[in-house]
């Protein structure tokens, strides 16, 4: 074996915490093993909810990583509220666990010699993907939900492909380390560990992975304390995040997130995604001269707002949920989309393309699948909570469909094009 | 057959299934990297991917380890005091780490366009939350001390 370069021994001796060891790493690892698959699955479901079969899930061109496409259901109406809420909230709550886990294995980074075999070299490479992957996903996700695009690349592309790199490395890590995790958890009973005081806390016996310090100092925190500190951090983040998904006064508990704040009082005082000013929709476009264009089966017709108000009105309490992790439930009133489809002469449409007055923007049009048009609660909403929609919420008319991602609930609707079953 | 497996094990350093598992993860990552290589911003993505590891392992960890050393020096062996400083400091730092985009007002225009609101309140809220964490920790510390030494609290 070649001689150690200067400094290696110093670094090795400087790991003093008596808590580091397979047991603590396995406890943090178990929490991640249980929760991360939920984050991964809900993230992928969010992608499917955007409708990859209509080329409106981003990134659109994903090659072999195309997910099985299916029509995103409209029931239960809170489906998307739950998938995106879990993805973002759990992703945030797990940050202290990830940091605790990384703290517990950090000595491994300075292992000497750095490479003992080809197997170890390849495994360390996958660990780079694992650690880089999770930190990259956390960083891009956190910046996205706080509207800070300092990274300068497309969020969707980076977060989608980053997820696959991470997931591959995560699966490999779990397969390789699972026996170690089981052995470590069995090495000391969980309950007894949590009852051990700081004074009675001793280092674990030396382990083959070298997690246990060679010269541990006295314990300043018990293992219960270490688990509690990470759990407390997770709880703190949970308390400050969950408000984004709640209505009523508890919403304000999301003190440090954009969606904990109400944009104003009154029936229209709920969070806005993209203001009318940002969308560039001008007042003269939405005034008395506004017309809704319906297309279907080669015919075109236009309706003004009073004609829409003269049609059968339906009210539904539906959540509007954003992939950025916030949601709110409101009472929407308007015309059923299936009534508009029938009016356009396409009572059983295969799909409908809804276009906004908005000229630019990724979501100025959205395609709804057949089930999303025909759901009895799928509306072209004209009013919310008993009053007209505010300009920021899409006046004169907006789409609201159960379990549909918020960005596809098109605002400032200008046109709906119903595709029949045979139109292709 | 067993002999061949043993030979592979000796040369490679682990069982054959280990090679299969790590190769699968590396091939997937390699395929993604090749796919993204023609993106104009591929370099930035790579920079952020590797930068995140460097930022955690070689910046964040040394910084928080050094701060902890400082707190230890400050507490001079009084472990309970040390932990009552550590816990709120960790909480405050965690909140800063997670919510820094709002606290530092990175992205004022996109935030305004998306929500119709500015990012001004977050800094003060973070400071107040941090103050509350330290205060809560200080109060529980004093209560614990009183419980631990009833004589002193009697004479006080």
UniProtKB/TrEMBL annotation, chain B:
Keyword tags: Membrane, Transmembrane, Transmembrane helix
Where does the chain cross the membrane? 12-34, 46-67, 87-104, 124-143
| Highest taxon, organism lineage | Bacteria
- Spell out the protein name for this chain: Uncharacterized protein
Organism whose genome encodes this protein? Micromonospora orduensis
């Amino acid at each position: 074996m070649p001689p150690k370069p200067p400094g290696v021994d110093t670094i090795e001796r400087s790991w003093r915490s008596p808590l580091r060891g397979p047991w603590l790493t396995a406890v943090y690892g178990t929490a991640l093993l249980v929760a991360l698959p939920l984050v991964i699955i809900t993230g992928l479901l969010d992608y499917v909810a955007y409708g990859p079969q209509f080329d409106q899930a981003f990134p659109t061109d994903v090659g072999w990583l195309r997910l099985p496409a299916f029509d995103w259901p409209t029931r239960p109406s809170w489906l998307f509220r739950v998938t995106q809420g879990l993805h973002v909230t759990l992703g945030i709550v797990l940050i202290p666990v990830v940091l605790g886990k990384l703290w517990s294995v950090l000595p491994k980074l300075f292992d000497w010699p750095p490479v003992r075999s080809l197997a170890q070299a390849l495994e360390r490479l996958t660990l780079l993907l694992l650690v880089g992957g999770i930190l990259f996903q956390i960083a891009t996700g956190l910046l996205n939900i706080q509207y800070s695009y300092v990274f300068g690349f497309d969020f969707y592309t980076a977060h989608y492909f980053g997820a696959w790199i991470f997931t591959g490395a995560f699966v490999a890590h779990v397969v390789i380390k699972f026996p170690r995790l089981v052995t470590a958890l069995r090495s000391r009973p969980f309950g007894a560990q949590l009852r051990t005081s700081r004074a009675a806390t001793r280092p674990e016996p030396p382990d083959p992975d070298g997690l246990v310090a060679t010269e541990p100092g006295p314990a300043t925190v018990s293992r219960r304390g270490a688990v509690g500190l990470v759990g407390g951090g997770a709880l703190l983040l949970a308390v400050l995040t969950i408000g984004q998904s709640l209505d009523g006064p508890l919403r304000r508990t999301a003190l440090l997130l954009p969606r904990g704040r109400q944009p104003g009082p009154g029936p229209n005082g709920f969070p806005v995604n993209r203001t009318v000013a940002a969308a560039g929709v001008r007042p003269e476009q939405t005034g008395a001269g506004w017309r809704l264009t319906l297309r279907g089966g080669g015919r075109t017709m236009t309706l003004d707002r009073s004609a829409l108000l003269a049609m059968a009105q339906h009210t539904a309490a539906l959540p509007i949920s954003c992939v950025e992790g916030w949601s709110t439930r409101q009472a929407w009133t308007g015309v059923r989309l299936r009534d508009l489809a029938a009016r356009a002469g396409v009572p059983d449409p295969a799909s409908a393309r809804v276009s906004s007055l908005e000229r630019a923007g990724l979501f100025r049009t959205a395609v709804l699948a057949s089930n999303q048009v025909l759901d009895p609660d799928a509306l072209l909403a004209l009013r919310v909570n008993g009053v007209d929609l505010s300009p920021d919420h899409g006046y004169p008319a907006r789409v609201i469909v159960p379990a549909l991602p918020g960005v596809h609930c098109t605002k400032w609707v200008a046109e709906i094009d119903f595709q029949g079953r045979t139109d292709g | 057959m067993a002999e061949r497996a043993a030979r592979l094990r000796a040369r490679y350093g682990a069982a054959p299934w280990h090679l299969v598992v790590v190769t699968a993860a590396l091939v997937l990552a390699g395929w993604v990297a090749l796919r993204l290589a023609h993106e104009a911003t591929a370099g930035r993505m790579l920079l952020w991917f590797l930068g995140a590891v460097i930022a955690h392992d070689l910046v964040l960890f040394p910084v928080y380890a050094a701060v902890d050393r400082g707190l230890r020096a400050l507490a001079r062996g009084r472990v309970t005091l040390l932990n009552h400083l550590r816990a709120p400091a960790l909480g405050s730092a965690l909140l800063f780490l997670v919510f820094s985009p709002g606290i530092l007002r990175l992205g004022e225009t996109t935030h305004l366009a998306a929500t119709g609101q500015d990012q001004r309140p977050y800094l003060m809220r973070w400071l107040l939350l941090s103050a509350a964490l330290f205060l809560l920790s200080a109060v529980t510390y004093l209560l614990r001390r009183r419980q631990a030494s009833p004589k002193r609290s009697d004479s006080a």
